[in-house]
Amino acid sequence: MAILEVKNVSKFFGGLAANSDVSFSVEQGMIMGLIGPNGAGKTTLFNCITGYYPPSRGEVTFDGRRMNGLQPDKVCKLGMARTWQKVRPLAKMSVLDNVMVGALCRTNSLKVARDVAMEQVKVVRLEHKLNFLAGGLPIGERKKLEVARVLATRPKLVLLDEIMGGLNPAESEELIQLIFDIKKDGITQVVIEHDMKAIMRISERIVVINSGEKLAEGTPAEIVATPEVVAAYLGSEH
Amino acid sequence: MRVTLSATARRGASPLGLGLFAAAVVVLLLFPQFVKSPYALHMMVLFFLSVIMGESWNILGGYAGQYSVGHSAYFGVGAYTTMILMTAKGIPPWFGVWVGVVVVVGVALIIGSICFRLRGPYFVLASIAVAEIMRLSAFNLKELTNGAEGILAVSVPPLTIGGTVITDFLSKVPFYYFGLGLALLTIAVTWVVEHSKLGYFFQAIREDQDAAHSLGISLTLYKNIALVISAILTSLAGSYYAVYVGFVDPNTVLPLDLSVQIVLISIIGGIGTLFGPVVGALVLVPLSEALRSNLITQAFFSMGLVSQDSKVGIFLQENLAHAHVLIYGILVVIVILFMPEGVLGFVTRLVQKITRRDA
Predict the structure, then answer these.
(1) Do the chains contact at B216 and A52, CB–CB below 8 Å?
(2) In chain B, what residues touch A93 (CB-CB under 8 Å)?
(3) What ipTM score was computed for the predicted complex, to two decimals?
(4) pLDDT score of B287
(5) Chain B residues lying within 8 Å of A131, measured CB to CB
(6) How far apart are CA A220 and CA A191, in angstroms?
(7) pLDDT at A237
(8) Which residues, 6 or more positions from A67, have their beta carbon under 8 angstroms from its beta carbon?
(9) How many CB pairs below 8 A link A and B?
(10) Does A93 sit within 8 Å of B207, measured CB to CB?
């Protein structure tokens, strides 16, 4: 069963088509990779899906419900949560408080929220930084904090926007393992990533976007064998 | 490791802090039994008023990060409603205050629906503009507000419960206790906010609106909740002030100066902290009074630093009181420059540093 369906979504900024006629669907529990060169429109697509932009055309359906026109907070409450490529820590709040804000999406009790937050902080292995201010964390830990905060909202589907960007190989490996852990919990994931090795390893299916349009879709093996994808990344000479 | 003041506060107040607070409340409760001077009581009333205004603003500005520079609007609405009801309709202020609260909730929601469409500096400008509209309306709606002449209440009807007179408001003592009660109320409300979901959501909105939005926080709803709480408490301050002074006009209860003063109490004391506005009021009220009343020049004379007949002495005596606004301004700039977290944050860091050196 498809938990997320993107149907003919287009997004125009004036005359510029950041996304045009993009369609794909994500099955419950799978990891879907979303790749494409810089400026291809991946983050815009995330923004259209999560309510930050209303799509100019097309339809987004999540869990059998039409999402067009819903505000981001509603989207989150319905069980679809996203991280930010440019991380957005709540700088003057502690790591635990950051994650608690996410947990408070589902409860009014601070005590319950604290328990949920502790659990998620442990999942991303930040428990040694519990009382540190989020603004003072190095980039790798900020990315982990983003993931913990999103998981604390108890989502059915998460959209991870380049959580490995700017990390060293050891940190990336940790996050790859984290993505596998999230899958084990039955949470569906859509992952934007530039690290090809990583995305080929984690994704069950991949959608390739170029200049706002869907270029290809398939399993990682099919994608690497598609000439158009190779051309988009390396130029047609190769 | 840097830990926020609010984060440490949330882990439960320290026994020392709680003890200090309880002791301060006891001293304040007994104060009028020992100090009878109307001047001292007047200063305390001004202090309480600053605490109430500062704590109220702090909920919206300090916790939710929405820097309203138009809080005079809520102060003025409270003050005017109570005074109009008292003088024109003969409704005693302890009922009028609550009508003021109802009116201010309506006003706040209208202002919120306009201003919260805007972010950052644009929100600040809109909040100033709306407060100015209120001030000019008060000037021009003469039937209701008596325009620039203002409204004068000759006397306050005595407070009675079931026929027994509780107080007749003839001395400053009842005002002292009302002020203390309201100040404690605003501190209590702030404490409850800080220790609830609201406090977390307000701070998340302050730190990053888009991130907060993506975590399931409705920005419109929670900004308006912060505004309504803040506006209600500010209107209580306005009503309290109006009844105490017995006079309102647009330039005393609705000016831009007042809005700025309200903001400064929190900024000087420590923004987004429970006791920041209390510290701010402790600094600002005596400071502005000392400068205004030439107390500093007198102190120089009595300490023998400057002779009363010397050229410097005569100069200070003639000019220092006139320059009190200037000096006040300079001191405020110094505090903001060198204590970005306010006096409370500065002192806390200092104490942390010293205790760490000992350890």
Answers:
(1) no
(2) 4, 7, 203-204, 207
(3) 0.92
(4) 86
(5) 1, 3, 7
(6) 13
(7) 60
(8) A49, A51, A60, A61, A75, A78, A80
(9) 94
(10) yes
Kindly determine whether residue B215 and residue A81, on different chains, have CB atoms separated by under 8 Å: yes
Amino acid at B145: T
Residues in chain B within 8 Å Cβ distance of A76: 214-216
What pLDDT sits at residue B213?
96
The mean pLDDT value for B103-112 works out to 96
Beta strand pairing call for A188-192 and A31-35: parallel
Q: Per the structure block, which two tokens stand in for B78?
A: 């409270």
Q: How far is B273 from chain A (nearest CA, A)?
A: 12
Q: Return contacts of A168-175, CB within 8 angstroms, 24+ apart.
A: A168/A140, A171/A140, A171/A143, A172/A198, A174/A125, A174/A144, A175/A143, A175/A144, A175/A147
Average pLDDT of chain A is 92
The residue extents of the domains of chain A are: 1-79+156-238, 88-154
Closest chain B residue by Cα to residue A50? B214
Buried b or exposed e, range B312-325, using 16+ CB within 10 angstroms: ebeebbeebbeebe
Q: How far apart are the first and last CA of chain B?
A: 15
pLDDT tens string A31-83: 999 999 888 999 999 999 999 999 999 999 999 999 988 999 999 999 999 99
Residues of B with CB under 8 A from a CB of A: 1-4, 7, 10, 195-197, 200-201, 203-204, 206-208, 210-219, 272
Among A76, A100, A104, whose Cβ lies nearest the Cβ of B214? A76
Cα(B82)–Cα(B94) distance, integer angstroms: 9
Query: B211-220, pLDDT tens digit by residue?
Result: 999 999 999 9
- Give the CA angle between residues A83, A88, A89 to the nearest 5°: 110
Residues from chain A that touch B3, judged by Cβ atoms under 8 A, are: 94, 131-133
Helix, strand, or coil here: A159? strand
Do residue A73 and residue B218 have CB atoms under 8 angstroms apart? yes
Q: What is the DSSP letter of A42?
A: H
Q: What CATH number should be reported for the domain whose range is B5-29+38-292+323-358?
A: 1.10.3470
The C-alpha torsion from B312 through B313 and B314 to B320, rounded to 10°, is: 90
Phi/psi of residue A217, each to 5°? -150, 140
Report pLDDT digits (tens) over A99-146: 999 999 999 999 999 999 999 999 999 999 999 999 999 999 999 999
| A74 to chain B: closest CA residue | B216
Closest Cα in chain A, distance from residue B22 (Å): 26
Strands A16-27 and A188-192: unpaired
Instruction: Determine what percent of chain B is predicted with pLDDT higher than 70.
Output: 96
- A220, A221, A232, A229: which is closest to A32 by C-alpha? A220
Q: Distance between CA atoms of A7 and A66, rounded to whole angstroms?
A: 11
Q: Considering only alpha carbons, which residue of chain A is nearest residue B221?
A: A73
Shortest alpha-carbon distance between residue B199 and chain A (Å):
10
- Residue of chain A nearest B211, judged by CA positions: A88
Which residue in A126, A159, A161, A158 sits closest to A142, CA to CA? A126
Question: A1-79+156-238 sits in which CATH class?
Answer: alpha beta
Q: Quick one: closest CA in B to A133, which residue?
A: B3
Strand partners, A94: A133
Residues of chain B contacting residue A71, judged by C-beta atoms under 8 Å apart: 213, 218
